Amino acid sequence: ELPSRVTIWEVGPRDGLQNEKSVVPVAVKLEFLDRLAAAGLTTLEATSFVHPKWVPQLADAEELLADLTQRDGVRYPVLVPNARGLDRALAAGVGHIAVFASATETFAQRNLNSTLDEQFAMFEPVITRARAEGLEVRGYLSMCFGDPWEGAVPAAQVARAGTRLLELGCSELSLGDTIGVATAGQVERLLDTFTENGVGVGSLAVHFHDTYGQALTNTLAALRRGVSTVDSSAGGLGGCPYAESATGNLATEDLVWLLDGLGVGHGVDLDALVATSAWMAEQLGRPSPSRVVRALGG
Ligand code: HMG
Ligand code: MG
């Protein structure tokens, strides 16, 4: 039942850094991206074209992409919330975008300044135009398991919102545990709910934050259901500025260690990745929260 190979969707440069208080210099971000690519990661979520006041850390998106040397065989998706964001992303020459929706009313309000329904109205023309321009479009769905304001989120509600994103034209749906509260049984139930609604695991990815230390266990539950795209961030950096109590993502190193043990392919050089996260931790002035980075002496 386990996939033979997993695509690691590296979100460190975007989700990992977006919550960082002091602005990381563009040169450091560029080196981070290049070292991640050199370590064998082939999907690097580079930045976001969101309102610069909402996420000041990523206000340098244009500059970053202008100076980025894109490697062959590596894709560099970016987050885009609306028409203005798509204009900016197209001008920067990106080939892959991700829109990001909320499964709950409160987080749609807090993260996108819109209602649950309005967010889809905002995304529809963005997805249509992006696809007409030949871009690939991923859809994120946040608060798939629990929401800090609304509590547990019913699987049927999540499946409804996720199905809408796929129907609007997203080629892949990433299920986000934004605040890291999910447990493995809940992951299995949500994936089964999607399957029952006609959405196969082939179009699903998982995106776990590690607040309660469950990210790796949840990932294993998803792998056993056949999910083969997993989001993670190098060194376990991350958190969402608009979600109370969100901490870092599943660390890419922890994921790689698990996949190696399972004999599942991933293409990443763990030593090079650990060295990159150790270097990034120095830049940020605090140790990596990843257990594997610490164990391997990063
Ligand atoms: P708004 O204030 O409602 O925007 O924000 P608006 O449409 O009313 O426009 C107001 C002004 O902003 C206008 O300028 C627009 O041009 C400008 P004015 O005419 O007043 O001079 N504007 C923009 N400027 C630059 N880029 C843009 C843009 N859009 C409007 N894209 C908005 C609405 C969606 C823009 C805002 O809420 C926003 O930027 N939100 C982003 C929040 C965010 O980035 N959150 C973190 C990412 S999501 C996440 O981390 C979860 C995830 O990891 C999965 C998981 O863990 O669950 C993906
Ligand atoms: Mg996230």
| Relative strand content | 5-15%
Shape: globular
Question: What is the rounded distance between the termini?
Answer: 33 Å
Report the helical percentage: 40-55%
Low-pLDDT residue intervals, each spanning 5 or more residues: none
Largest sheet: 9 strands, parallel
Write out the distinct hetero groups bound to the structure. 3-hydroxy-3-methylglutaryl-coenzyme A, magnesium ion
Instruction: Tally the beta strands.
Output: 11
Q: Could you give the order of strands across the largest sheet?
A: 2-1-11-10-9-6-5-4-3
Computed structural class: alpha/beta
Oligomeric status: single chain
Number of H- or I-type helical stretches = 12
Please give the radius of gyration in angstroms: 17 Å
Order of SSEs, N→C? EHHEEHEHEHHEEEHEHEHEHHH
Family: Belongs to the HMG-CoA lyase family.
Domain Pyruvate carboxyltransferase: 6-274
Pfam families: HMGL-like
GO molecular function: hydroxymethylglutaryl-CoA lyase activity; metal ion binding
Topology record:
Elements: E1 7-10, H1 12-16, H2 26-38, E2 43-44, E3 47-48, H3 61-67, E4 78-79, H4 83-91, E5 96-102, H5 105-112, H6 116-132, E6 136-142, E7 146-147, E8 151-152, H7 155-167, E9 172-177, H8 184-196, E10 204-208, H9 215-224, E11 229-232, H10 252-262, H11 270-284, H12 291-295
Parallel strand pairs: 1-2, 1-11, 3-4, 4-5, 5-6, 6-9, 9-10, 10-11
Antiparallel strand pairs: 7-8
Helix pairs in contact: 2-11, 7-8, 8-9
The site of magnesium ion (MG) has 6 residues, from loops.
